[in-house]
Every structure is written in structure tokens, then in C-alpha cells.
Design goal:
This protein has two domains: about 230 residues, Neuraminidase; about 80 residues, Immunoglobulin-like (Sandwich). About 5% of the residues have low confidence. The strands form seven sheets. A four-stranded antiparallel sheet has the order 3-2-1-20, with no helix packed on it. The chain has a four-stranded antiparallel sheet with strand order 4-5-6-7, with no helix packed on it. It contains four helices and 27 strands. By secondary structure, the chain is mainly β.
């Protein structure tokens, strides 16, 4: 009888404890729900609004309630994606284009907290790094081969209490565009890649929480809103957004999207929280997002997510053998050259094609005397000619 009573008491205690935990989880999920519209990362939101014990309970809840989703492969996925995992200390790396998405090839832990990125027409990868404590955002370039980054400058002209949420280059007008969100509003800008100065377009997009921005080959702007999970077209002249249709997937917190300019497909890294997410392709005519594969095994949240430029040309392959840094540069350019390759001559030209007469010697070039601007570095190497854009600040 004593053993039976002890067992009964234990069962009552277990049931009571389960009920308490369930009630506590329900309360935490209730508090988390409105915070899912934050443009910041899941980790940032948890740290700012929940105790360490509450964070552990929420993460355990998400881990125990992951949804198994069969992959729906797209025939047009790129060979790979470049991404930055902001959930795990800013790990930059590559992700195979086709599922299963269970391996992330780490290139560098650069520590960036970037919520948006894109390549320009010179294959330079730009990103917007945001410090959630100081609320300062920086424009940086990221070397896709090494993962190293260089700071151009702090963003100037960002709306008060806004965080950058989108970055996309328009090949139609050779202009970089930025999206920001905060205080229940979203703003579109153009971005000067030399000075990091933003110029607002219109007085707002008309929706509350635009979380990413992408521009296709025809100069059409696209955006998603994490408050209502709708897909929008964005007028790049007026800044106004028009709903296209529902994504039919719950997206939350910071994440990014990429347009594959080779295949003409829009791909989204959708994130729900606690490592739960997946890769989707988006139909720009309807807004519907087709699931390709989950990223849960990676426990990752991708603040940067880009399809690299198409197959490398001979010059691109040669450029991988030469690293020129820092870029942007203030004083001195340094040349890191693969063994066996030689630079016979290097000349720096301004945008008008005039030779600046800067001298290359012993793997260095002093450019401190040059005014700010964009320059073209032309090199004659032992394996052929190569040129690259240099930004002087």
C-alpha cells in the first residue's frame, strides 16, 4: 500500500509540474508573439526580453515541436548560396544550393550582425552591419572568398529608431537600394556606396515591417512584411509598396532573400525562430513561396543570403589568385598574390580614364594623396590582364 501511495503521489506531482510548465510556456509564447515582428535576430529578441531561464524554456519548446516537412526541390536552384549565420556569432560560409540543407561550409567567423547584403555590377559583395546596442549601422564590403570585411562608413540618413532590413542592387540603373523598418513603418532609400549616405525615396512604403528587399533583372523591386507575411512589389521611384499576395509561410525576425540573376528566380531564407527555418522559391506573380528544404539541422538564422554571380570567367578565376585590400582604402593598398603569379605592371585610373600615376612596388601602392572616389586598378600579370574597382575614402 505504501508503494502504491508513493507512486500515486509522484504521478500527481508530475502532472502538476507538467501543467505548470505548460502554463509557463503558454505565457512565454504569448509574450513572444508580438516580438516576432522585430527586424532583429531571434537571439537579440530573446536576450532583450526574456531571462536566461525563460530563454532555455522557449528554445526547448521550439526544439520539441519542430515540424517535419518533405523537401520540394526546385529545378532552378543555384549551385550554392553565400550566407551569414547571425544566430551563431556571425559565421560566414556557403550552403549547397540543393537540399538537404544539413551542411554549412564555414569560410570565416567574421562576427558581423548583418541583416542584408547584395552584389553590385562589379561582383562586390556589400552588407549592412547593425549593432543592436548602439543602434549604429555600417556599410561594409565582404570578401566572398575569405569572409573578411572592410568598413566603408557608418550609414548616414537612416530614419530615427529604424534598423536596416534590406539591401539590393538594381542592374537597370546601377543603383544600390536600402530598406529600413522601425516604429511601425518601412522606408526605401538609395545608397551612395562611397560615402554610405542614404537618400529617402518618398515618405514610406505604406506597410509596417518590411523585412527584406530584392530587385530582379527588369528593375522590379520586391519585399516581404513579417507582420502579415505578405509579398509586395515596391515602386523604386515613389517608394510605395503594393501587396501581391500571401507567402503562405510564417516568417519572423531578421532574415534575407536573394535573386538569382542567371536563372531569374527569387529565393528566401525563411526563419521562424530557435533555429527553425527553410529555403523557399517565390512566385513574384502571386507571392506564393514554394518550400525547397528545411535548414533546421543547421540551427541557423541567415541575415545575409546571396546567390553568387554566375560561372567564373577567366578573369574572375585569375582574380581569385590576387587579394587587394583594404577596399575601401584610405592610405595604402596591399597586394596578396598566389605563389607563381607575378604582377608585371599595375596602374590606377579615375572614372574618366586618366592614369593617376600611383606607383606599385613590393606588393604595395600608396594612394593617400588621391581624392575620394571610385578608381579602376588595371594589372598586367604573368597569366593575363585583370582589372578591379577600388574605392578611395
Amino acid at each position: 500500500m505504501k508503494k502504491t501511495t508513493t507512486l500515486f503521489t509522484f504521478l500527481l506531482f508530475s502532472i502538476s509540474l507538467f501543467a505548470q510548465n505548460a502554463a509557463q510556456i503558454d505565457g512565454l509564447l504569448e509574450r513572444l508573439e508580438p516580438l516576432k515582428n522585430s527586424p532583429f535576430s531571434f537571439t537579440d529578441v530573446l536576450e532583450k526580453h526574456f531571462t536566461a531561464e525563460e530563454q532555455q524554456l522557449l528554445i526547448a519548446h521550439f526544439e520539441n515541436n519542430k515540424i517535419e516537412r518533405p523537401p520540394n526541390r526546385s529545378n532552378l536552384v543555384p549551385d550554392a548560396f553565400l550566407a551569414l549565420d547571425i544566430r551563431n556569432n556571425g559565421i560566414f560560409g556557403s550552403l549547397d544550393g540543393t537540399p538537404p540543407y544539413d551542411t554549412f561550409d564555414v569560410i570565416n567567423t567574421n562576427g558581423l550582425n548583418a541583416f542584408a547584403d547584395d552584389f553590385d555590377n562589379n561582383n562586390t559583395l556589400y552588407a549592412l552591419d547593425f549593432d543592436t546596442n548602439t543602434q549604429i549601422s555600417r556599410l561594409v564590403t565582404v570578401d566572398p572568398v575569405t569572409g573578411n570585411f572592410a568598413v566603408i562608413d557608418d550609414l548616414a540618413g537612416l530614419n530615427a529608431n529604424h534598423a536596416p532590413s534590406g539591401l539590393s542592387f538594381n542592374f537597370d540603373d546601377d543603383t544600390m537600394y536600402v530598406l529600413s523598418t522601425g516604429n511601425g513603418s518601412t522606408q526605401l532609400y538609395t545608397l551612395n556606396l562611397i560615402t554610405a549616405v542614404l537618400t529617402p525615396i518618398g515618405s514610406g512604403t505604406g506597410n509596417s515591417t518590411g523585412i527584406w528587399l530584392e530587385i530582379d533583372n527588369d528593375g522590379n523591386g520586391w519585399m516581404a512584411d513579417i507582420s502579415n507575411d505578405l509579398f509586395y512589389s515596391v515602386n523604386l521611384t515613389t517608394g510605395a509598396a503594393t501587396p501581391v499576395g500571401p507567402l503562405d509561410v510564417d516568417i519572423s525576425f531578421a532574415q534575407d532573400v536573394t535573386y538569382d540573376h542567371t536563372n531569374g528566380e527569387l529565393f528566401m531564407a525563411a526563419y521562424q525562430g530557435a533555429g527553425v527555418g527553410g529555403i523557399y522559391s517565390i512566385n513574384t506573380a502571386t507571392g506564393f513561396a514554394t518550400f525547397i528544404g528545411e535548414t533546421d539541422a543547421l540551427d541557423a538564422e541567415f541575415g545575409m543570403f546571396s546567390a553568387p554571380p554566375g560561372p567564373l570567367s577567366v578573369e574572375d578565376q585569375l582574380s581569385n589568385k590576387i587579394s587587394i585590400y583594404p577596399n575601401p582604402v584610405q592610405n595604402e593598398l596591399l597586394f596578396n598574390i598566389t605563389a607563381g603569379l607575378e604582377i608585371n605592371q599595375a596602374s590606377l585610373y579615375n572614372v574618366l580614364g586618366k592614369d593617376t600615376k600611383m606607383v606599385y612596388a613590393n606588393g604595395k601602392m600608396d594612394v593617400s594623396s588621391l581624392p575620394q572616389g571610385i578608381y579602376i586598378l588595371v594589372m598586367e600579370t604573368s597569366e593575363g590582364p585583370i582589372s578591379t574597382k577600388i574605392v578611395k575614402r
